[in-house]
Design brief:
Length: 514
């Protein structure tokens, strides 16, 4: 028997759907600004993808982050001393659990609770229906944040003959990968060129698979995790790159990015992978520390996309064929928000790839509803999630002016216009967008001693605590420390190339401000 209860929540209560990184950091800042967040989490604890016990986690044993500990954290909690450069799944879970405990969020998380429906309430606000065991609870909130994650609904493409695949280990999405130990002495096919696809292929090859083949439709340029001992995101996702993107034509940006990638990683076809599109924006960028070296060693074979499957035999688009024991599809995820009422989903233009929002966060016709972390981002996620959470909390609390209806409508139109283009967004673009919205983007002229670190160093979370709401007294020292990590930027002196780019982007910014 199911019990049903209705409750009217206080005006300062905020429902947050999801207790992963996006939900936790948004809750932390809402609590800071006087709200009372309640987090709804289907798993038995916080952490999202990093919680291995979550039914929606796509992580595997032995998995480590693709971004450094400096960039896989929030601004006011560091990783414990001794944490490696690239933390493990277990270390990330412990970090997020520690974050929730530090800011008093654990008691606010309703674990093992599924949100079944979110809809408008008569007279304003939102009705949220949740279920835990045999109890169904409907609550009315003035404000709700949807932070349920972008990577929860695996996407497996239609392939002729896939349902008849007879390999001993079957066909599965990469989210079901349990680690290389399960594929020892097996012939493995990994489909896709995403980070997860290439990391899984590398892990299987290094764990003793008899053979590993990777197939995909489009060859991306591949960056390693480290560039001359510095984590890649410290070098590639910078403020200077984001500011240059605002003023340089796309052709110049593509050429400059390609030259930078080739200088540090080379072209994939140099070592036996397929040739990437000459335009790096059309090709795309992925990341894997071991993939290209393993291709060069012949331990990973590369093929074009699957044409058909006949029992264990897989035929590829170039006419070659191979027999496999397992197929793993690293082909991404659908955007899935099944709890949204049809009317809300229609307002958002929601489909499996798109959601119509102003700056990925608000909608002019959905007052009191915000979305966090639902974009398809490339690069470190934690700094961006925190900036978005700070924007939401500050705007709702009146710490900064909330965007007007007209401004939201303009932003919504801008977002809709981008539906036909690439959906992946580089981290540095989103970081500056949310920092500007939250009023926490540092003014370079105020920090001359940090100018090189701010322009060419990592977009560390603490660098967005230099000024504006919630600034920190020790943010300058911590920003310099983050930039100097791994020997990247130890002095304020720029080289000629950096000075030229500095003059270009700061000059354009000054002209724009004037």
């Amino acid at each position: 028997m199911t019990d049903t209860v209705f409750e009217e929540m206080p005006s300062n209560a905020v429902a947050i759907i999801g207790a992963g990184p996006a939900g936790l950091v948004t809750a932390r800042w809402l609590l800071k600004h006087g709200f009372q967040p309640i987090l709804y989490e289907a798993a038995d604890g916080p952490g999202g993808q990093w919680n291995a016990t979550s039914p929606l986690s796509g992580t595997w044993r032995g998995m480590r982050t693709n971004t450094s500990r400096v960039m896989t954290r929030f601004s006011d909690l560091d990783h414990p001393k001794g944490t490696p450069v690239f933390p493990s799944r277990e270390e990330m879970y412990a970090y997020l659990e520690g974050y929730a405990e530090k800011f008093g969020l654990m008691s606010r998380i309703r674990c093992r609770t599924w949100v079944e429906r979110l809809q408008r309430a008569d007279g304003g606000g939102w009705l949220l229906r949740s279920r835990r065991d045999n109890m169904v609870l409907t609550e009315r909130f003035a404000r709700v944040v949807v932070a349920s994650g972008r990577y929860v609904a695996p996407e497996v493409p239609s392939v002729p003959g896939l349902n008849g695949f007879t390999g001993a280990l079957g066909a599965a999405h990469a989210s079901q990968y349990v680690g290389g130990h399960a594929y020892r002495c097996q012939d493995v096919l990994v489909a896709g060129c995403s980070i997860s696809a290439l990391e899984i292929a590398s892990d299987a090859a290094l764990s003793g698979a008899r053979s590993v083949t990777v197939c995909y439709r489009r060859q991306r340029y591949v960056l390693p995790k480290l560039l001359s001992g510095v984590p890649t995101e410290h070098v590639m996702f910078t403020r200077a790159a984001a500011l240059a993107g605002e003023i340089l034509p796309p052709e110049a940006l593509a050429a400059g990015l390609k030259a930078q990638v080739l200088s540090v990683a080379g072209a994939p076809d140099q070592v036996g992978a397929m040739a990437a599109d000459d335009n790096i924006f059309a090709a795309g960028i992925t990341q894997s520390q071991h993939f290209l070296p393993l291709v060069a060693e012949g331990r990973i074979a590369v093929r074009p996309w699957i044409e058909s499957i006949d029992e264990r035999a897989v035929r590829f688009a170039d006419g070659t064929q191979g027999d496999f024991d397992a197929i793993l599809f690293g082909t991404g995820y659908r955007l899935s928000l099944p709890f949204l009422a049809p009317e809300i989903a229609a307002t958002l233009g929601l489909d499996h790839k798109h959601i119509d929002l102003c700056d990925h966060t608000f909608h002019p016709e959905l007052e009191g509803l915000a979305f966090a972390g639902l974009y398809d981002q490339v690069g470190p996620l934690f700094p961006v999630l925190e900036l978005q959470g700070r924007w939401i909390a500050s705007a709702w609390a009146g710490v900064i002016p909330a965007p007007s209806h007209d401004a939201l409508a303009v932003g919504l139109a801008r977002g809709r216009a981008q539906r036909g283009g690439p959906q992946s967004i580089p981290m540095h673009i989103l970081a500056l967008l949310f920092a500007q919205k939250a009023g926490v983007e540092p003014d370079l002229s105020r920090w001359p001693e940090l100018e090189r670190a701010l322009l060419f160093g990592p977009l560390s979370p603490v660098s967005f605590r230099l000024q504006g709401p919630d600034s920190l007294a020790d943010a300058p020292a911590l920003t310099a420390e983050a930039a100097a990590a791994f020997g990247a930027i130890r002095t304020p002196e720029m080289n000629d190339e950096q000075r030229d780019l500095r003059d270009l982007v700061t000059g354009a910014a000054a002209s724009h401000a004037a």
